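Can anyone check this?
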Amino acid sequence: MVLSGRICCVWLRNDLRLHDNAAFSRACALLAARKCDYILPVYFWDPRFFDANAKKCPKTGDFRKSFVRETLLDLKNNLRTIGSDLCIIHGTPEVALKSLLDADRSIIVTQEEVTSEELAVDREVTKVGFKLDYIWGATMYHRDDLPYHNTLSDMPDVFTPFKQQVEKRSRIREMLPTPQKGQLPLPPELPQQLVEELPPLVTEPKKQCFQGGETAALSRLAYYTWDTDKISTYFETRNGLLGDDYATRLSPWLAVGAISPRKIYWEIKAYEDKRVANKSTYWVIFEMIWRDFFRFFAIKHGSKIFWPGGTIGRKPAWDDNDEALERWKKGETGWPFVDANMRELAEAGWMSNRGRQNVASFLVHELKLDWRLGAEWFEYQLIDYDVCSNWGNWVVAAGLTGGRINHFNIVKQGKDYDTDGAFVRHWCPELEKLPTKYIHWPWHASEEELQNYCPNYLHVRPPLANDKADTRSYPPNSANGGRGAKGKYRGYYKQPAGQSQGEFIPQTSGQAHSTKWKQMLTSVTGEGAPDGAGRGGRGGRGAPSAGRGYKPKKRGKLQ
């Protein structure tokens, strides 16, 4: 049924809120200018993003599906309180819009997206005759206020100069008014089944840590600021690993647009005026600028942020090791700090910022695996997945943007940020009784100690190592566990006399089991084919047969 009348369709995507919503603000302005008679809020549950494709490659895991569903139901309820509603349509926008609206009499208002697959959907919509009226609402700094050319071609590729320039030369706009009762009139002939349709039920995740929706988002912001003053100590706690309050944990709501970046900014400014302004309150804003940076970085570089060689076009020769990838995904690498973080991701759909940096560094720099495999796994698992932040962070972690490469010393990071081993013990119960001095490197314990303290640890195969592991050492006093000197060994791996380079075994305090471990390590670390060999430049290999069957792709074509 095609609706009659002049209708402004507000096509909601990652802006699922009423407050500070530029799409609703534009629709209200069009109604006031008599350019439309009705306003129809719509969300499309697009199977290309939520369902498995022909290759059985789901993009969205149950954690995020459940969170988005809750967010849609909350927005639906909030719209109903002001006399409107949300139409949730299962299907693709280009097909559903054509059957719902008259292209010649309708206006489609939607938030501008910036990455390839989302832009491909827009092109499909325009092909069936609709014109899109874009608004900007995904960032704290408005794109039009940046001190750069409108293509962002002169924007720095490194965060620090970007931050300095926007802080000095740009401003953050005031929030837009929230629609009031009667300002979003629905078409009178709207079919009842269209507004009664709900998002599909999903398999309930094992442990849902976040409640979806604008209501919960605003509650969390109030809790972290006015109710508890936890924002005043954010800088000191931000590298925490356990608990709910070491960080703002607002990212899931930001990712779906249930809370506005400007709402967070102006709430912090009000808090600073009335309570305290310090390094911690600023640091939350600092992290929000990082989020803006990655979105604008994606605009500047387009699909290069998904390419094997990143924005600089360099193509490392990745190892082809499906077993290592599968162990990384399952949290069975044998490196406790990596494993604990990966298990938290699998069980909760969440990982701390500190954890994300470490597991990415481990995949890329220790296992030598294609960084896009990690980015795709995060896309599937994370409850707070944001296309620009996720892929931007991963391509940076891979060292393919021209900036500094952070190669983390995993053991040192674990000792620095999980000093007592509580985080590892929480997620790796097989290590629960292991003395703290061994908790981040169990291979330093003797076989007798391992049998006494954690007999179940031995069923998890020994730490993955790369048979082409370079001879870089880890500086013991490095602030971030970065690069070390080349050609020296300082204990995290040792090379026995007569052993050829590339045959590394974990250093242990007892050598009785080292031969067995060496054999097992060798069995899972074969040299792989160069990235992209014989595959037309796609640079990917299929996931292991026990996995989900997807291939890393040059993102840009909907599957």
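Reply from J.R.: I decoded it. DSSP finds 21 helices and seven strands in the chain.
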